[in-house]
Amino acid sequence: MFGLGLRLALRSGREALIRLALIAAAVMVGVAVLLSVLSEFHAFSAAGKRQCWECTVGSSITATRYGADPTAELWNYSEDYYQGRTIKRLDVAALGPQAPAIPGLAEIPGAGRYAVSPALASLLGSVPRDELGDRFPGARAAVLGDAALTGPDELVIVIGHSPAQLAALPATVQVNAVSTTPEINSVKSVYQFGFSIAAIALVFPVVILIGTATRLAAARREERFAAFRLVGATPRQMSAIASVDALAGAVAGTLAGVGLFLLLRSTVADTAVTGTRYFPALVTPTATGYLAALVAVPAVSTLAALWSLRRARISPLGVSRKVTPPPPSVLRIVPLTLGLVLFVVPLALSSSSNPDFKFADLGLLLIMVGLVVGGPC
Amino acid sequence: MKNAVESGDPVARGVLLEARGVYRSFGQTPALQDASVEIAAGEVLAVMGPSGSGKSTLLHCLAGIFTPDSGEVHFDGARLDSLGDAERTRLRRSAFGFVFQFGQLVPELTSADNVALPLLLGRTGRKEAYQRAAQWLDRLELGDLGARRTGELSGGQAQRVAIARALVTRPKVVFADEPTGALDSLTGEKVMELLVGLSRQEGATVVVVTHDARVAACADREVIVRDGKVVNPYAAKAAA
Fold first, then answer.
1. Which residue of A230, A239, A323 to mutate against B (max B Cβ within 10 Å)?
2. Would A180 be classed as within a structural domain?
3. Residue B191: in which H helix or E strand, if any?
4. Which residue has better confidence, B139 or B104?
């Protein structure tokens, strides 16, 4: 059936090819958008799991000379600003040879030396020293690795001091271990919800477009289907044949979408969707994300195509009738109502500082589906 | 006097296909009104009548394409009109063949594809389906056109492909609706010769709807439909 359906799809003239091309184009855009959102989400999640060395909590100072505690250091973390940009500054002084270093740094810099993030190194080289460089005493000893940073634009500096110097600074603490836990991000769930909304809101119109494209040149195709029905094709076989071009378009579109995404990936990585640029290596969908796009999008496209053909009951003599839609019933607004309830109620019942988005994605999806099902189409 | 229709089991009377008091309307327009006819196994029956008389509707009811509003259709001893869509679909695929004036072939597919189609739909293996299709195309002198799309064939060639497709499943009944309506008289004659001749060789019953007396002349018997009713359902065989 697949071969016959494919031949029918490819040889049915210009309209059929336009239909195929439209489906493929819609799917291509959908897949590229979906992969972009998934890759940004992956980068956001990966950055959120980064070891938060900035969260390190110390204790009161008990020693102020090198060698007093081989595994300790003095620690003074602060934030500075330059032209509206935050600079994370860590002043450290080793109290012994095994003083713990932050991720992305092999060892803490000695007194009079500092390690700097690539973005800050670049900034220091491009602005007058008295505007910025003078704030940081010492000479550059190292460049911080990616593990120390949430993204390539992050401005971070780790400045080495002698213990006596640093102990004299207010807010200095003694640290034996650098924090290894991720940062507790109170707005993480909001961002996650934002990604879900973006994915649904961007992909749903593509699904609608696929359904619309499927109906192109429907009359001619239905004549062909009638010929199949005449010689004994079952409605199920007809559905299989009818879904072939949607499936073929979807598979071609998915592959093209993956290609388009790979072409656009560096642009996506350069876009600070959440206000932060992530490392390009992180801006990629997971294997599951790719699998979801490669399997789910063709599947959804095929279902959208079949859904759009649901009203044509093809008899052996042609479309004998368009199934008259039943009079509007209350059931048609169930998905919309359920979606609104799932979307609104948990949010309304939860506190504003800790909003409950658990069912909001499902709610939004149901609202979208409900608008289609409950609408006049 | 009891007529044949009222006299009991159609199979016992050698009747393969029968309509009894069939009514069928399209909206408010009646197409068949108390139409009855019986067709014997192996018979070639011509259904004649003026345009709009209901002869095509009668053929469609006999073939299970339409279900009557009331009345009965019997095929091979079983009620056809009460079968579900799946059963009627199976009959169209395996027991019936169709040759219509237009639209029964898929122009984008090749002649071989079209002939093999009912076999492929019936789950016959691809190789066997195409072998049988090739044999039938040979029998209809279309062996060299198997790879040609039917949309590129002449009208006569296309009707021969349709005949091959109608007979490839060794059907019990071939339904033909104006099979020569779009052909010139010489080609039409040739098509009818092939349709009737090959159907007889295969032992198939033929029901042919036509308003062409030359086509009807190929039949064993002819009935006339007028205003939705078969006016001579038990007409005797035409003289040889």
1. A230
2. no
3. helix B185-202
4. B139
Going by C-beta distance under 8 Å and a sequence separation of 6 or more, which residues neighbour residue B142?
B111, B157, B160, B161, B164
Question: Quick one: A202 and A302 in the same domain?
Answer: yes
pLDDT at B31: 93
Is the ipTM reported for this complex over the cut 0.90? Answer: no
Same domain, A197 and A150: no
A7, A227, A233: residue with CB nearest B105: A227
Compare A220 and A224 and report the one with higher pLDDT: A224
State whether A203 and A78 are in the same domain. Answer: no
Measured distance CA(A248)–CA(A255) in Å, rounded: 11
Please tell me the predicted confidence (pLDDT) of residue B157. Answer: 93
Q: Is A219 on the interface with B (CB under 8 A)?
A: no
CA-wise closest residue to B112 among B68, B152, B78, B161: B161
Distance (Å) from the alpha carbon of A150 to chain B's nearest alpha carbon: 58
Contact list, A1 vs chain B (CB under 8 Å): 120
Determine, yes or no, domain membership for B128.
Answer: yes
* pLDDT for residue A376: 52
- How many structural domains comprise chain B? 1
More confident residue, A309 or B164: B164
Tell me the residue ranges of DSSP E strands in chain B.
Answer: 15-26, 29-40, 44-48, 70-75, 78-79, 96-100, 173-177, 205-209, 221-226, 229-230
Q: Does A6 touch chain B (CB under 8 A)?
A: no
Based on the fold, state whether residues A101 and A247 are members of the same structural domain.
no
Spell out which residues of chain B touch residue A245, defining contact as CB-CB under 8 Å: none
Which residues have a Cβ under 8 Å from the Cβ of A67 and sit 6 or more positions away? A95, A96
SS3 B83: coil
A58: pLDDT strictly greater than 80: yes
Q: For chain B, say whether A42 makes contact (Cβ under 8 Å).
A: no
Task: Please identify, among A145, A175, A205, the residue that sits at the C-terminal boundary of a domain.
Answer: A175
Q: Containing domain of residue B126, as a range?
A: 107-168
- In the predicted model, what is the mean pLDDT of chain A? 82
Domain of A219, in residue numbers: 2-49+185-324
Interchain pair B109, A7: CB under 8 A: yes
Are A193 and A45 found together in one domain? yes
pLDDT per position as a tens digit, A128-165 = 989 999 999 999 999 999 989 988 899 999 999 999 99
B129, part of any domain: yes
A contacts of B117 (beta carbons < 8 Å): 4, 228, 231
Tell me if B114 is assigned to some domain.
yes
